[in-house]
Amino acid sequence: MLFSIFKTIVQWVLAFTLLMLFILIPREMEIEYGPSGEFITGHYHYSISLHGDNIKQFFEPLFNGEGLGYDRYDQPLLTHAWDMMQRSLLLVIPAFFLSIFLGVAKGVFDFQTRHGKRKVIGLQTTWLGLSVPDLFYIIMIQMGLMYLNVKGIITGLSLYGAGSPEAVIMNIIYLSIFPLFYIANVTFSALSDQHGAEYIKTARAKGVSPFKLLYIHMLRNGLAKLFIHTNIIVLYLLSNLFVIEFLTQYRGAAYYFKEYVSVVNHIVDAQSLSVNTAAIAAYTFFFTVIILIAGVISQIARGLLLPHERGEKG
User: Is the model's pTM score more than 0.90?
Assistant: First the structure.
């Protein structure tokens, strides 16, 4: 287990290093002007020396204790990035636990209703949830709330921005939709695998109650597989976070990260393709650290819950 955790950390260091090398790639262009000073064309040529200069210029202030500089609001970039990251975590952390608890409950329900008419509202709804993009559900929920507001049934809701509790709650719900169905599917598969195990057949022959068999034995052993998917769940949450924050104008880390990575689509001068590399690096660091933590948790779960991962038999 310790080797797996060390391997995960090394992979994170290598991945973050490659990302930083890409972020600090030189973006200066050679602009060709006409006799009257009009723009003719622009040329880009990669230079290893310029790349090295960018790396040096980026790390020198850090080593000198000057930080990453200041943003457009004259705030320290690292401080502002962390503040916005906390605002996004206000969505991600509750959505993580909500999707796990509801996903497990949905998976158990799917398993219990896998035969008969209730399968329509059980397993088939899970398949539908995995097949349809969650953006469709988000738009339908928003349209439904708008309709209720027009009819005067629900009024006074503020669903956009980050200044109201209802906006935070709805964004948590939006963020949980796809991971919920994903976890439900994982739970159903885990229970289905346990259902045919020899120890289940033995316990059933001894007269163990179906409730105890499901919740004490099958679910407990099946949940070991769920924790292995921790990093995948977190990746789903972070990828959906960019869409949801942009769609609802929730000004968190994903929203500002998108603003900083946006490059102008027209050339004004030789610096037209430049971006705020310090801000992008700060947000990239925080996002990748969350992925690293999820990966470490996944490796710990493997070591603690799966015997063969500890080198044991059985």
Answer: no
Give the pLDDT confidence score for residue 89 in this predicted structure. 94
User: How many Å apart are CA 191 and CA 220, to the nearest integer?
Assistant: 10
- The SS3 of residue 70 is strand
| Under 8 Å between Cβ of 248 and 167 | yes
Q: Name the CATH topology of 90-276.
A: MetI-like fold (1.10.3720)
Q: Could you give the CA distance from residue 281 to residue 277 in angstroms, rounded to a whole number?
A: 6
pLDDT confidence band for 273 (50 / 70 / 90): low
Four-residue CA torsion sign, 73, 75, 76, 77? negative
- Contact (CB, 8 A) for 112 and 184: no
In tens, the pLDDT along 194-213 reads: 776 777 777 777 777 777 77
Q: Which residues pair with 39 in a beta bridge?
A: 33
Within 8 A by CB and 6+ apart from 235, the residues are: 291, 294
Angle value at C-alpha 9, between 8 and 10, nearest 5 degrees: 90
Beta-carbon contacts of 141 under 8 Å, excluding residues fewer than 6 positions away, are 170, 173, 174
pLDDT tens-digit readout, 63-115: 887 777 777 777 788 888 899 999 999 999 999 999 988 998 898 888 888 88
Q: CA distances (Å), 56 to each of 16, 51, 130, 272, in order?
A: 17, 9, 46, 22
